[in-house]
Specification:
The protein has 164 residues and is mostly helical. The chain has 7 helices and 2 strands, in the order H-H-H-H-H-H-E-E-H. The protein has a two-stranded antiparallel sheet.
């Protein structure tokens, strides 16, 4: 059985999620918080790993490597999205204070400090800016990442007969 259709799905789902996020930003006027930007980076990582698997179509070992890399990106994104959802559910008195924007942080801090600062979150990350069917956008992103993680784990664990 070919792995290319699975990698195609693994490419198209994150690309669709990213297109939706950029539509919300540029058409809907919904500015992303720093955690949203980190989730976009993780989503792009999943798409890139799956795209490489889709294009390469290597053997069983290559397919497992691409699936493992995509799973790692999806797990990272799921952890960031879970942190974001957790911040949104904090009582107002426990929400961290607003911090500077991501552009400013990148200019004045080393990358490791930027990541640590963003992952701590701030009030802009705890504000619910949009929801659908009773779930916030970060909750939907978390669901997407969990699905991508499960798909990636399935891809790592299965033994394809051929990949093209």
């Amino acid at each position: 059985m070919s792995t290319r259709p699975y990698f195609a799905i693994g490419t198209l789902v994150p690309v669709a999620a990213l297109v939706f996020a950029y539509l919300l930003q540029y058409v809907g006027g919904l500015d992303p918080c720093p955690l949203c930007i980190f989730q976009r980076i993780a989503m792009a990582g999943v798409a890139l790993c799956c795209l490489m698997g889709w294009i390469h179509g290597g053997g069983a070992i290559a397919s497992r490597i691409y699936a493992a890399l995509a799973t790692l990106c999806a797990l990272t994104g799921a952890a960031i999205a879970a942190r974001h959802v957790w911040l949104m559910h904090l009582p107002p008195d426990q929400v961290p204070a607003c911090g500077p924007g991501l552009d400013y942080l990148v200019q004045i801090m080393p990358l490791s400090d930027v990541v640590a600062t963003v992952l701590r979150g701030d009030a802009s990350c705890a504000t619910v800016k949009g929801s659908f069917a009773g779930l916030t956008l970060p909750a939907w992103t978390l669901i997407c990442f969990v699905g991508l993680t499960l798909g990636g784990l399935w891809g790592v664990s299965r033994s394809p007969a051929r990949s093209d």
